[in-house]
Amino acid sequence: MKAVIQPLQHNEARLIAGVSLASMVIFINLYLVQGMLPLISTSFEITMSHATLLLSATSFTMAFSLLIFAVLSDRIGRKKPILVSLILLCITDLFAYFITDFNQLLSLRFVQGILLASVPAMAMAYFKDELTGHGLLKAGAIYIAANSLGGIAGRLLGGVMAQYLDWQQAMLLLTAITLFGTAFVSYLLPTSHFCKPENTSKSRVFRMTDFNGFCLHLGDAKMRLIYLVGGIAFMIMVNQFSYIQLHLMQAPFDMGRFEVTLIFLCYLSGTYASYHSAKWVTNHGLNRVFKSAALFMFAGSLLTLQDTLLSIYVGFLLSAFGFFLLHSSCNAWVANRAEQHRAKATSLYLCSYYLGAAIGGPYLLPFWHKFGWDGVVLASQLALTLMSFVIVKVLHAKPDTDQLAAV
């Protein structure tokens, strides 16, 4: 018998809309430079390979800043750090307008990586504080969908900027987008009623005891396994999208640099999967959803071996669908399992998630050099096989405090 889904209350809807919009602003800023690499190369007189350091710098500081923001949010709450980080992001976007040296820009992206970690580190803990049951699942689903939309919008917007604007015009437009997004987030986010900050000492923002939560969650065997699932899934997903662009720019496809970014529209299937994941978990159970998501990723990757535009696009639609279904379910699982230090639990998951993305590039590179796209698919299947074993281990372990499965 299917569960009866209750409509969201007004403040719950505002919370979900506000956090999701903040997420879109974050991911537009994170991925914009990927579509702007040709413009950056020209504006700062550097090679394209050198320009890609901007992505590495931001992702690196973002991954580890997730842990810092998790501690900060448990001490002083969720809403204030999100709004402050978005305001500072607006200011750094404006600073980029005046930058003429690539090293300065690289330093600025290091700083922005810290600010970009705020929303991912706190979002699911924020939802867990204020929402319960289906509301939490729905919030996680909409939030992950917003992540994918922000990533798509950022990459495509960057490509349009690179084609039609100069560097200064592009940064002014980005500043305006971030400013308006921040204003709407500030308006939408309601006052928190249930978050209880742990700050009992005004003398210090951080204490050694603040890091006990990380040890607590890392000591949970099932939590470690789900961190591994998310890390492997994103390791394959994000890096497959990078290598397929290189493949499509070669013969017989010979796509242009902007044309090839249209592959990111395949993320839309992931947006759909994220949005509906709460309903599917409620109606079909976490076990079936996890296994189905893994199968979609396997099938999508294999389909691209036919090496036609149709098979590649359909394959990536399937892979994105499976990945975002898995990712949104993992996010909700972690937030629901964590009875204490929730922001730390979700930030550890996301740290693993982004570190997986960092590892994936070097892991797939020798397969690409040796066998081309076929090698990338082979390496992906090996990693997805490992991920599937981990999923089975999580799902068939003793059902101790696995609360999400009972939602």
Topology:
Elements: H1 10-35, H2 37-43, H3 48-51, H4 53-76, H5 79-98, H6 102-116, H7 118-130, H8 133-164, H9 167-188, H10 212-218, H11 221-248, H12 257-260, H13 267-284, H14 286-303, H15 309-337, H16 342-371, H17 373-395
Helix pairs in contact: 1-4, 1-7, 1-8, 1-9, 2-8, 4-6, 4-7, 4-16, 5-6, 5-7, 5-9, 7-8, 7-16, 8-13, 8-15, 10-16, 11-15, 11-16, 11-17, 13-14, 13-15, 14-15, 14-17, 15-16, 16-17
What does this protein look like?
The protein is mainly alpha-helical and 407 residues long. The protein is 79% helix and 0% strand. The protein is built from 17 helices and no strands. It has helices at residues 10-35, 37-43, 48-51, 53-76, 79-98, 102-116, 118-130, 133-164, 167-188, 212-218, 221-248, 257-260, 267-284, 286-303, 309-337, 342-371, 373-395. Helix 5 packs antiparallel against helix 6, helix 7 packs antiparallel against helix 8 and helix 14 packs antiparallel against helix 17 (373-395).
End-to-end CA span: 14 Å
Strand content: under 5%
Low-confidence stretches: 1-5, 401-407
Give a short account of the largest sheet: none
How many beta-strand elements? 0
- CA radius of gyration is 21 Å
Number of helices: 17
Indicate the mean pLDDT: 83
Can you give the helix content as a percent range?
over 70%
C-alpha geometry: globular
Secondary-structure element string: HHHHHHHHHHHHHHHHH
Structural class by sheet pairing and helices: mainly alpha
